[in-house]
Design goal:
alpha/beta, 14 helices, globular
């Protein structure tokens, strides 16, 4: 949710210092990408398989030719065992496009181990899975009928919309769309100081999630999910399907920070800070952008400070400043065209004592 400039600005302060960077709520890898650009070893954790799939691609190294060759091979050599027959899929995708998409999906799921090329291919496919239909189909960047690109519409609503507006899914080549997408990627072949395995799917509240991180972390840059945000799992249901999930929307909350109450939110954050402190090396600096959806009617600064106190570690607050709002800059909230008021955000810098 935060722009690239936020972690980049922080990392520039440490450019002459050897630091191991961690983002325990890495999302789609903004901190990881900034760390790669500035040659810092970095680790990321997120509970969302979609976020992790995209974040891993920010650390992958290979050529675009390798990615496209793998895509062509999987589409050509895979015979899909399951092609969704629900009305949503029949209207969301052209029948030929859907078959190609299922070939790619099952081909990627069948790989014994994800290579760098497979990691980038998977992330690119997730990015192309749904979005606006271009006026010129030959230049489209998405596989689907008309949809938002940041979240997947719910099936019943989407089908009604397409039917009412007489919208038909374009017949597109999955490989050609991916080729246009990947051609815009830069720096794919440049070496990365971190492996794709440095991004972990897991719950940062659990100590075992941090086990793969064997070195002492001494720089944390992160932005936890905001109090009041509850729909991420449902919004990403179609991308979760591509990663091997259900063809139907999962309305259970999944692994998310405690959103039942402010106290639950504080306790959840505190567990994360406890684990971060336990895995840290010397001179740990932590930068946290914290926000609260305005409808939650809570004090973001007070909640964050309470979570630090409850963590059991001793932290010294170096600075806190307003980060304006989630509508400032190129923010995902703006892309979603939300009708609600943007979140109020604060940037904290704290040091473990």
């Amino acid at each position: 949710m935060f722009p690239l400039e936020y972690p980049a600005r922080i990392l520039r302060r440490y450019k002459n210092q050897p630091r191991i960077v961690l983002d325990p709520f890495c999302g789609r890898g903004t901190t990881l990408f900034a760390s790669r650009q500035m040659n810092f070893e970095t680790w990321g954790i997120d509970s969302s398989p979609v976020a992790v799939a995209i974040a891993r691609a920010k650390l992958a190294t290979c050529t675009s030719e390798e990615v496209l060759a793998l895509g062509a091979k999987l589409i050509d050599q895979t015979v899909p065992k399951q092609i969704p027959s629900a009305e949503f899929f029949r209207v969301a995708f052209n029948s030929e496009t859907l078959v190609q998409l299922c070939c790619l999906r099952e081909g990627l799921l069948g790989l014994r181990r994800a290579s760098n090329a497979a990691t980038i291919l998977r992330a690119a496919a997730l990015g192309c899975l749904h979005g606006p239909v271009a006026k010129n189909v030959s230049g489209t960047g998405y596989f689907s009928n008309q949809m938002p690109r940041t979240y997947a519409s719910k099936p019943a609503y989407a089908v009604r919309y397409w039917r009412n507006h007489k919208l038909v899914a374009p017949r597109v080549s999955v490989l050609r769309v991916l080729e246009r997408k990947i051609s815009r990627f830069t720096g794919l072949s440049e070496s990365s100081p971190s492996s794709i395995d440095n991004v972990v799917v897991g719950d940062s509240r659990r100590k075992n999630t941090f086990r793969p991180i064997r070195k002492g972390v001494n720089l944390v840059i992160t932005s936890p999910p905001y109090l009041g945000m509850r729909t991420y799992v449902q919004d990403q249901w179609l991308r979760n399907w591509f990663l091997g999930g259900s063809e139907e929307v999962d309305y259970t909350p999944g692994i998310q920070l405690g959103q039942i109450s402010q106290d639950a939110f504080v306790r959840s954050l505190a567990k994360v800070w406890t684990n971060v402190a336990a895995r840290a090396g010397e001179d740990l600096h932590m930068y946290v952008r914290i926000g609260i959806i305005q409808s939650a009617k809570a004090n973001a600064k007070a909640l964050f400070r309470s979570s630090l106190e409850e963590s059991g570690a001793i932290w010294r607050e170096v600075s806190v400043r307003s980060a304006e709002t989630a509508s400032a800059g190129k923010r995902q909230a703006g892309q979603m065209k939300a009708n609600s008021e943007p979140a109020v955000e604060f940037d904290f810098h704290v040091v473990r004592v």
